């Protein structure tokens, strides 16, 4: 473990021994100290080494502005795997990095035991960082072979569809069956049998079952990245590889997205618990670490006494403390294994806890005033969870691929509950038209529920 001094390594080793004694179960964790600018790049790209694209530069500038305004500070980034990889900022104080070490161990325990994280590990293995670096290298080779403009056009389309995967399906899927069996001719009715027995009528020929070409797709297909990579009429292998690379990384990131409140709360619960029981820490360091903990899990920004956004650290930590107090640690471990944020919030963010944490639903008026509209438990649950549904993206499916290769997409607005930004949809279809090389249409609805069709401008 790279450190700014032997003292942190000494504390980290003792905290890890304490974590094991407390029953935390995780894959080995490799810690590395990095400068703040490198940590910023990791947080923006999502991985230490990832495919190059202009959109990451935009995110970097946005993160830099937020950090400069004091709205965001990154203490650590941890990547689940076997081993887990954790990056700590080298200019954090010793108390901060001591707390962060305990926090990372909580993340590692969650990642090994939660069912969503375990499912991805089973499908893809535990070496995402090495695989992401290899994919980035293949894309660099594609740039050299085909030119930056062509590769960027494919990345534009793939990254625009990054959330459009079907996480209920397997990472590695076969193509659809090419044919389907025809149904047998139904038995004739009594009337038809009598009709066929009339003089001059030939007996009804009995048709044996056969096969016919299967439609593409055979049912609504929500995994757009997979479908385009498999069925793009004129896509080259390197283009398909980019779509599948983006898809695999989207599968990897989904558990982090879907369990953010649970995961950050679990890590915060364990860093607080481990620090309380770490009697080997000097009192001054312990007090400074607890002050850092309070800063991480507080509900309010800076000195404000009202928060208009949920702090996942604060909310998750509060729910886990409530669960452990009411049901015990073993029940908390079971919930950690079995739930994601949807079940966690709906089942364990109680009305009493909502009142205690002063959670509410609000609306912003045109004149700038903020008005509280709901404190009902179900309204608060849905306000927290609705941005998480379907990776936060509109629910779009491939509905039909026509004989000429043109593609029809449909917006499942009835189950979705969110609209489509038509301007953004036009840009995404423009990107998609470049790689599909046939017309692409999206059927959706407008603000008043009227039918709308968006068509790619390029073929």
UniProtKB/TrEMBL annotation:
Protein species of origin = Noviherbaspirillum humi
Q: What InterPro entries does the entry give?
A: Spore_V_R, SpoVR_N
A Pfam match is SpoVR
- The entry's protein name is Stage V sporulation protein R
**Which segments constitute the SpoVR protein-like N-terminal domain?**
6-384
Q: What is the lineage of its organism?
A: Bacteria, Pseudomonadati, Pseudomonadota, Betaproteobacteria, Burkholderiales
